[in-house]
Amino acid sequence: MTWHMQSGDRVLEGYEAEFYLKVLQTSFLTDWDIFVFEEERNDLKDFQLWANTGNNFFHRASFNQQIYLINFCLKALLKPDVPMPELDHILEAAAFYPFAYLSQMIDEEISQELHWAEIENEPEPDEYNYFYRQIAWDAFEKMILPDLLEYEEEEEEEYDQEDSVNLFYEQKYKSTDLSEWQFAVDCLADIILWDRDWFFVTDWPQLLDGMDPAYAEAMGITENYFTNRLPKVSDEEAIELLREIMEWELPET
């Protein structure tokens, strides 16, 4: 498949694909390890998504349905041999899940670090204390920062501003500025997403009943974008879909 991105209809490649897959697999890693250790019972009752994408319809779906949609998006984002799907709010929420997870884990990581500092306790080693921020910073530095620095330099020249120093760029993965991390993760999500239309369902669930064609056109979406249909997925199917995600390996380059 391919995905309709701001940079064109394409799949994620190289480091983009590595980053997306790593975050997605990490989000299920603990539960999956327990599942495998317990000889893979055909029971997914202990599985759940660890972050809210901002779309209540997707959030309230069963785990089986969620994993079906996440698996579908992964294929659309990484495999170029199937036609591009028509995007709707559920698929975009599913595609956004790794970014929602990364953002939440960074939030928790920073909260824990600040708590340690407050009680004057020794923090954990860097590999644990900055695990999620390191993932996000590496991706931000490689895929976003070069163009961002060029843009900021042009802005300073155009408006004759003095060179400014962004503390976030200096502190890198050790930054505790939540707003900067939110910006960084949003920039990474913007690689595959144009906007956040899927958020609207949370505040206006009536959109699931259908929408005016003129309003849909004005938003740049189809009349069927706010679908209320979810797939039927058995436990056995969900296990195999999750296994496919966890055992996914990118081709060597």
Can you give a write-up of this model?
- This protein starts with a strand and ends in a 7-residue tail after the last helix.
- The chain is globular, with a radius of gyration of 20 Å.
- The longest helix has 30 residues.
- With 253 residues, the chain is mainly alpha-helical.
- It has one domain.
- The chain has a two-stranded antiparallel ribbon with strand order 1-2.
- The chain has 12 helices and 2 strands, in the order E-E-H-H-H-H-H-H-H-H-H-H-H-H.
- Helix 4 runs antiparallel to helix 9.
What key attributes describe this structure?
single chain; two-stranded antiparallel ribbon; 253 residues; 12 helices; 2 strands; mainly alpha
Count of strand segments = 2
Quick one: overall form?
Answer: globular
**Main sheet overview:** 2 strands, antiparallel
Q: How many structural domains can be distinguished in the coordinates? A: 1
Number of helices: 12
Parts with pLDDT < 50 across at least 5 consecutive residues = none
Distance between the termini: 20 Å
In what range is the share of β-strand residues? Answer: under 5%
Percentage of residues in helical conformation: 55-70%
Identify the strand order in the major beta sheet.
1-2
Q: Secondary-structure element order, as H and E? A: EEHHHHHHHHHHHH
The helix/strand class is mainly alpha
Question: What can be said about this structure in brief?
Answer:
The chain has a two-stranded antiparallel sheet. The chain has one domain (3-246). The longest helix is centred in the middle third of the chain and has 30 residues, at 89-118.
